[in-house]
Write a structure and sequence with these properties.
The chain has 216 residues and is of the alpha/beta class. The chain is 25% helix and 32% strand. A hairpin with a 4-residue loop joins β5 and β6. The longest helix is centred in the C-terminal third of the chain and has 18 residues.
Length: 216
């Protein structure tokens, strides 16, 4: 792909249960040109990256992806090692199965999504600010970030990858859980960067830089 003049175009998938405005505003704030898409034909050839955000129920998210054909788009995009970012449900959808509604995910990565089982003093959902511990050094998504940087979480389920090498960062809430994954140019976070103020914008800024680099 040849790098184009102007802001990088980032396709943002609308599954009908996304916080699209927050995500698109965050991407605009770091110099990208987000384009909301609802079917594969709406993704222009000029798109340099793909973002899959989501809030709510995973069954609805995965069902929407399959019905629109965008589930297969996500699979192909990641297989081609094109820049991809999943957020919250957009991370959980990538795995094989979820306990939330006994849902079959896209199965791009081996593993499952499980419900928090924590002592009573840890309220579920896990909601609010929490710090990360990076398990991989030098990841381009983590540029400018350090251990103990705090990000905003809202979730009752979390991912358990079969391959521990997929884990970019974890978090502790009555025990460790996977907070971010990375494989090639595909990344996903359980936390919401668009709700995480300056550190969250740094995540999006880093992702946009990855997209620009990939398109050079």
């Amino acid at each position: 792909m040849t790098r184009r003049n102007g802001p990088p175009e980032i396709a943002v998938i609308d599954t009908g249960i996304c916080n699209l405005r927050s995500v698109t505003k965050a991407l605009e704030a770091v110099g990208a040109a987000p384009l909301v898409v609802r079917k594969p034909s709406e993704i222009p050839p000029s798109a340099q990256a793909l973002v899959l955000p989501g809030v709510g129920a995973l069954r609805d998210c995965v069902g929407s992806l399959r019905a629109s054909g965008l589930g297969e788009t996500v699979r192909e995009w990641i297989a081609e090692d094109r820049p991809f970012l999943g957020v919250c449900l957009g991370m959980q959808a990538l795995f094989e199965h979820s306990e939330e509604g006994d849902v079959t995910g896209l199965g791009i990565y081996p593993g499952k999504v499980v419900k928090f089982r924590r002592p009573a003093e840890f309220k579920i959902p896990h909601m609010g600010w929490n710090t990360l511990s990076f398990r991989v050094s030098g990841s381009p998504l983590a540029a400018g970030l350090t251990d103990d940087d705090a990000f905003y979480f809202v979730h009752s389920y979390y991912c358990e990858p079969t391959d521990p090498g997929l884990v970019l960062a974890d978090c502790d809430y009555g025990g460790p859980f996977t907070a971010a994954i990375a494989r090639g140019r595909a990344f996903a976070t359980q936390f919401h960067p668009e709700k995480s103020q300056a550190k969250g914008l740094q995540v999006y800024r880093n992702f946009v830089a990855i997209a620009i680099s990939a398109g050079s």
